[in-house]
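User: Hi! I'm working on a homework problem where we have to compare a predicted structure to a textbook description. Could you give me the structure for the chain below?
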Amino acid sequence: MRSAVLAAIMLTAASTAVAAQTEVRVHYAIPTIWSETQEALREAFMAKHPDVKIVLDGPAEGYPEGVQRLLREAVAGTAPDVAYVGLNRWRILEDRGLIQPLDDFLGDNPDAAGYTPALLSLGRYKETQYALATSASTLVMYVNPGLVEKAGGSIDNFPTTFDGVIELAAKINALGNNIDGVWIDRHDWRFQSLLGSYGGRPMNADETDVTLDSPEGIAAATLYQRFAREAGMKSYADSEARQAFPAGTLGIMFESSSLQKRFEQGAGDSFKVTVRPLPIATDDHDKVYFPTGGSAIVMMTNDPAKQKAAWDYIAFVTGPEGQKIIVENTGYAPANATVINDKAYLGAYYANDENARIAHTQVANYAGPWYAFPGAEGVAVTDLIAASLVEITEGADVEETIKNLAETMRLQLGFK
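Assistant: Happy to help. Predicted structure tokens:
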């Protein structure tokens, strides 16, 4: 009888503990990068918060697909409590009133917790904090030192201007034997990065006009044509380029710093993957900005009972411990200043990884928001940018193409 009573007491206690556990559903995308990292974050958080159960939804293939799923789930009433979204996608959810402001959770001194003004800007709109960055990346140059040396160059004296990069890429391209000199994708984010190098912006400050037809925008677009005409850049897809570089047949690749680990693993011992920062094309470095790729985390639940647990999770993954896990597993730059400034977290990591140090320093110095064009057509116009860059690469008049693009965007975004 005593054993039965004890068993009943233990069962009741266990049932109470389970009942007290708050479940938080989490959405994420890009499982090839994030699957193992999300599981590591989940386990580390739950070890510190046994009263919260993190449930990971099946991942979306990419951020665009993820946002579309979140919109459908919101309509159906099945949206998750927390979601990781692309840094240029959270405004789509904010525009529809689907995410919760985080200001009250952050408190009066977020800087003390590592949330610097620059980092907060990645998830802030109209003086309200709707998202927090969870990972950050900017456009860098991946270089094959062996091909550079065969072309007569030096990795120690690698060019720091676009003119120098194009000249070197042309020499690498001339090596023959299926060797390509340079590649960059015809893509909104890559174009914004080149634009930011010249000190330009895609839109004006109050988001009432498109400004990528500025002299800076035309100069940035011209680079695509120069890469093709002067350095022989081929028009293959990003999947082909991401295979060609680690295979050793592409000398210089402009790509996200988040792919560092993938390229290093792909190249193996065949050559030493080397990262170099993006050239700065303006003399006024205060105007330089590199749109920050990566992800942000948002709170979707409006249930007060769940919001505390959801915030605890958000604070963990954007805090030093969570950021350490993300950096070490993905190669993304951290989105919390504490994890950079306090060597207890990543000091040894950076000491042993010069590529990461270079890439993450660029994020710290020049990170800015990845412009998300406003309104219902905000995503669609990025396809127009990509199409125009294809035309320019293939020989279309740069200034005419960019000015026509800007006018079309103004009409589609409702600015005219």
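For your comparison, note the following. The CA atoms of residues 153 and 280 lie 20 Å apart. The first helix runs from residue 2 to 20. Good luck with the assignment!
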